[in-house]
From TrEMBL:
Species per Swiss-Prot/TrEMBL record: Rufibacter glacialis
UniProt catalytic activity: UDP-N-acetyl-alpha-D-muramoyl-L-alanine + D-glutamate + ATP = UDP-N-acetyl-alpha-D-muramoyl-L-alanyl-D-glutamate + ADP + phosphate + H(+)
Pathway the protein contributes to: Cell wall biogenesis; peptidoglycan biosynthesis
Catalytic EC class: ligase
All residue ranges annotated as the Mur ligase C-terminal domain in the record: 308-421
Intracellular or extracellular location(s): Cytoplasm
Known function: Cell wall formation. Catalyzes the addition of glutamate to the nucleotide precursor UDP-N-acetylmuramoyl-L-alanine (UMA).
Coiled-coil annotated spans: none
Stated family: Belongs to the MurCDEF family.
Protein's UniProt name: UDP-N-acetylmuramoylalanine--D-glutamate ligase
Length: 449
């Protein structure tokens, strides 16, 4: 019996372990950290041997193949040891791909992956297709393959998941953008990071489709220097020459694979330029699997994005409140400010990550009427934006922040929580911050007894 060692007992590792066990492998799971209780229970019930807080190298290196968690870098000593012993090291995605019967729609990019993945899944699911949602969005692909019965798998892929994929083949691949991120894993070379992202299109044939953002400079740079397989389907907003997908007013014009159609997007709740790219990509994938424009238009209107991403959380006296707590960097806030067409009261702040706020100044001066700083140390925000002459206040209490923002706003305005900062000064994480904001809005909306 062939032995497989699995490094990391999180969602992907346990999913791979359960699939490997079902396929008749001798499986051993090793995690250098502690294993969450629910995963420990799953492994025990499946009678899969595992260890935590250590790596038993003799056990690991006795395997014919190693499946590693995406969080473990190739430079980790346990991985280096496997390479020296010529033991293949693969990802959970690579392993699951060997056993899946359906077609893969794979989405990657530095920003927008989750929204595009969820929207693509929603469009296919709404059309009645047998479709699974997996990958970086939260559930292991291996677990979904083990469930079986799916014709399509919509998979969000981080660069870390792509790195150890070799024979895996996507039938539709989407590359949204490439901006500097995780460069410590790629020798601080953008070329290496871009190459990782482009692995989403590896092994494609002319019958497969590669959708990419032709406005993105790093994508164009890579395409100019490398041959990329698959039938190319470019989409764009700025550079529309040759774009197979482009916006025309409130609709997407699509012309590829023998089709030429219009898909109205006026029902979509997604706002902002970045979401226009995400929507083009998802609509393109839906058209490629045979979903009609009418079905897509209806499904766009019922889509609910993941929480904390430009999420409407209430309206009081004509003032809309939007939770964009996931916007923990300047680029994400730029997209939020750019996408909202009403006057904004901006709630910003938290743990600064070395931010340069200057790119936001033109948008702030154009669109923002007041700034509420929600954080322990707001000195850098005051230094960056006091020159605008806008009203600026600060607080460390989210309920007070919401009340202050409401007082600054008038009917028709938007109160936007888009922090540009990490949340750890006052909250556990960005989800906690977003929930607290939404709860404060709900509390403010309660009639006084």
């Amino acid at each position: 019996m062939q032995k497989i060692a699995i490094l990391g007992a999180g969602e992907s590792g346990v999913g791979a372990a359960l699939l490997a066990k079902a396929k008749g492998f001798d499986v051993f799971v090793s995690d250098r950290g502690s294993i969450a209780e629910r995963y420990r229970v799953q492994l025990s019930q499946a009678q899969i041997p595992f260890e935590e807080e250590t790596h038993s190298l003799e056990q690991i290196y006795s395997a014919q193949e190693i499946i590693k968690s995406p969080g473990i870098p190739d430079t980790a000593p346990v991985i280096q040891g496997a390479v020296e012993r010529n033991i293949p090291v693969i990802s959970e995605i690579e392993f699951a791909g060997r056993y899946a019967k359906g077609k893969f729609i794979c989405i990657t990019g530095t920003n927008g992956k989750t929204t595009t993945t969820l929207l693509t899944y929603h469009l296919l699911k709404s059309a009645g297709l047998k479709v699974a949602l997996a990958g970086n969005v939260g559930e292991s692909l291996a677990g979904k393959v083990l469930e079986g019965g799916y014709d399509y798998y919509v998979v969000e892929l981080s660069s870390f998941q792509l790195d150890n994929m070799y024979a895996f083949q996507a039938h539709i691949a989407i590359l949204l953008n490439i901006t500097p991120d995780h460069l410590d894993r790629y020798g601080y070379q953008m070329e290496n990071y871009a190459a990782s992202k482009f692995r989403v299109a590896q092994n494609m044939t002319s019958e497969d489709y590669f959708l990419f953002n032709q406005d993105d400079a790093e994508i164009q740079k890579y395409l100019g220097a490398h041959a990329v397989p698959g039938t190319q389907v470019p989409f764009g907003l700025k550079n529309t020459q040759g774009a197979a997908l482009q916006f025309q007013g409130h609709s997407i014009s699509a012309s590829f694979a023998g089709k030429s159609v219009q898909v109205a997007t006026s029902n979509s709740p997604l706002i902002g330029q970045h979401n226009q790219y995400n929507t083009m990509a998802a609509v393109g994938a839906a058209l490629l699997v045979g979903i009609s424009p009418a079905q897509i238009e209806a499904a766009l209107g019922t889509f609910q994005n993941a929480g904390h991403r430009l999420q409407p959380v209430g309206e009081i006296d004509g003032v809309r409140f939007i939770n964009d707590s996931k916007a923990t960097n300047v680029e994400a806030v730029w997209y939020a400010l750019d996408g909202i067409q009403k006057p904004i009261v901006w709630v910003v702040g938290g743990t600064d990550k070395g931010n340069d706020y200057s790119p936001l100044l033109p948008l702030v001066q154009e669109k923002v009427k007041a700034i509420v700083c929600l954080g322990v140390d707001n000195s850098k925000l005051f230094a960056s934006f006091s020159q605008t002459g806008l009203k600026m206040v600060e607080t460390q209490d989210v309920q007070e922040a919401v009340q202050l923002a409401k007082d600054f706003a008038a009917a028709g305005d938007v109160v936007l929580l888009s922090p540009a900062c990490a949340s750890f000064d006052l909250f556990k994480n960005y989800e906690h911050r977003g929930r607290a904001f939404a709860e404060a809005v709900a509390a403010l909306n309660q009639p006084v007894a």
